[in-house]
Amino acid sequence: MPNAVTATWFISFNQVKSSDPSAAELLEFMSFLEPKAIPRSILPTLTSEEEMDFSIGTLCGYGFLSRRDKGDIFDMHSLVQLSTRVWIEGAQKTQQVIATATQHIEECFPSDEYTNRGTWREYLPHALEILKREESKDLSERYSLLSKVGDCVLADGRAKESVTFFQDVCVWNESNCDEEHPSRLASQHELARAYQFNGQIKQAVELLEHVVAVEERTLDEEHPSRLASQHELAGAYQSNGQTKQAVELLEHVVAVRERTLDEEHPDRLASQHELARVYQSNRQIKQAVELLEHIVAVKERTLDEEHPDRLASQHELARAYQFNGQIKQAVELLEHVVAVKERTLDEEHPDRLASQHVLARAYQFNGQIKQAVELLEHVVAVEERTLDEEHPSRLASQHELARVYQSNGQIKQAVELLEHVVAVKERTLDEEHPSRLASQHELARAYQFNGQIKQAVELLEHVVAVEERTLDEEHPDRLASQRTLQDMKQSIEGGSP
Q: Superkingdom of this entry's organism (predicted)?
């Protein structure tokens, strides 16, 4: 920056500091925020609203700030920001100002509750800007703010960023807190949650097993933190194909919460919701439908139409209806959920994509094959652009699109896509993982339809062998694979593909 420009700004800064010290303090604070769209509500409070109005007026009068549409959102020119930082550095106040700013933003930054969404989205760019500063790396408030930011970006579907933030928090807590310290355990819990959303299931399971082990040793059975971690671990078990462990753990959590919490309590409803999801994976469909109908009834009575928790349970109930053969109810409910999410969430948001995925499956079962293909091709295109190749959600959508391609007679596309999915799952999942077996089963069917009978039989014989070793004799997946293999062999003997 030219010295003449700097000198001119410095003269103005000194005039403001002399005539209105509060305005100078506000300017120092704002110089370490994102310079665009600074909300008045994020600023440190002065002794009165009148003083705040006067000091903001001073800064606008000197041209340091510009007000948007006579409202309470302000912009700072980048040259003003840079000059102010140079001025602060010259006064040897950088460390002090950044510490004060970090502490203030940590205090005013909201939780990730749905009702706070507008506020935290407005504050987020400014929190991220202050978190870039190395000068705050030894402040405990920095890591408290990182935790809040991590929760909020995760709620907005930005799992990779959330993982990065919580990893930093965990490193800090592991260096400064004992193994049993609540803050250390809480940050490990949140990192594991972010791992799950980011498709890092094994890391999530490993970390949550540690957290649960410590909390079961140190906290009472009814302690909310212990129950929350057990709930989270059960969800990770389900994602990792450990369905029996998930059912057992969630039934315990639900029993405790039903004994200790009101019917409408969010934690009680959340664990009932998760148990219903696991029941579906365990083919306990009637129990899942019954539990989800209760949950949805409570949430429709207590939450707004756009509330994520209400939509999540409606989504899950629609899935259960589908598994229960109630296809029309599933389609109707999912079309409602997708319409709301398309109105309220970004195109790349995982929750929006998940409901579009499930609606496409419902369309397929309802005979609406063209709609299913179109919707799944959209979902897969977005996920291939935004998720890693090994992410479970991306693989699940590719698997589902391949199934729909088969129904639509696009056999070559189905084979090609399933070969890719199976290759990734064989590289990343255990041999006994239900998701890996399901895709191998589906690829064998596609091989059969494509006339590749030898490959189909060989692959399905492997699937059947694993399922006979790991699943109960009457498990639906085992029976389905045995039946498909038998049909293939009969078709070979009969001379037809």
A: Eukaryota
Range(s) of the domain holding residue 250: 157-283
Phi/psi of residue 67, each to 5°? -90, 140
pLDDT digits (tens, 9 = 90+) for 194-214: 999 998 999 999 999 999 999
pLDDT (tens digit, 9 = 90+) per residue, 231-263? 999 999 999 989 999 999 999 999 999 999 999
Instruction: List the CATH number of the domain containing 179.
Output: 1.25.40.10
Q: How buried is residue 259: exposed, middle or buried, by Cβ count under 10 Å (0-12/13-18/19+)?
A: exposed
> Phi, psi at residue 36, to the nearest 5°?
-100, 145
Please indicate, yes or no, whether residues 369 and 275 belong to a single structural domain of this protein.
no
SS3 category, 240: coil
Q: 27 phi and psi, to 5 degrees? A: -65, -40
On the 0-12 / 13-18 / 19+ scale of CB atoms within 10 A, 187 is buried
Token digits for 319?
């899935």
Which residues make Cβ contacts (< 8 Å) with residue 244, sequence separation at least 6? 282
- Domain edge (last residue) among 252, 283, 314: 283
* Under-70 pLDDT residues of the chain: 1-7, 494-497
Q: Are 345 and 275 members of one domain?
A: no
Nearest to 190 by CA among 172, 178, 175, 176: 172
Do 261 and 291 belong to one domain?
no
List the alpha helices (DSSP H) in 345-410: 350-365, 369-386, 392-407
